[in-house]
Write a structure and sequence with these properties.
By secondary structure, the protein is mainly alpha-helical. The chain is built from 10 helices and 3 strands. It is globular and about 65 Å long.
Length: 233
Amino acid sequence: MKPFFKKAKVFLLKTILWFFVLSIGSTILFRFVPVPFTILMLQRSVEQIIAGEKPRIKKNWVEWNNISSNMKRAVIASEDQNFFSHSGFDFEAIKKATKFNERQVSKKKKKLRGASTISQQTAKNVFLFPARSWFRKGLEVYFTFLIEIFWSKERILEVYLNVIETGKGVYGVDAAADYYFHTSAKNLNANQAAAIAAIIPNPRKWSASAPTAYVNKRKAWILRQMNYMVLPK
């Protein structure tokens, strides 16, 4: 049995070593090159095939300077207002979300509040599989640390805006700008940017160009909050 345990130990150590090498290497690589695809994109394509639909991945990578400041301010207002001041995790938001969710559970209500930052969402979208488990959450924390170390805040937001799901088979804000408003990410006005940001929590159900009353309410709130969002120069 001893040779078996020795081999198992060596195998485990090699696996851990390769995990760190590949994870750190890919993080450094994506600091400079566009992310070609995500696991979520592949999963959605498989789901479309199973449903008897033609798989569609509509995306177009655009660099930081080709994304409207309106779009940047809209997602910060909507998703993570402390993005430029935290180091990947907004502990105050986590504390508030925990208290809110405890009240909701005690009232037997299903609507819960998340506290994932844009950094966490980017780490999840780029490197991980879409599932709910403590193991995946642990990996999300690890990759969030990595991108906060190796990427600038501008790069994190740039990647987020290029890979986020924005519709059925639509990914990134440039593809969303074209799909919903027949324009580009660079030319999005405040209303259009807020509409896209408003549907990010449920992009396959909601539409930026044909919003429900609830989406319009979210958009109006985002527009008000955008007035307080300042991008670094």
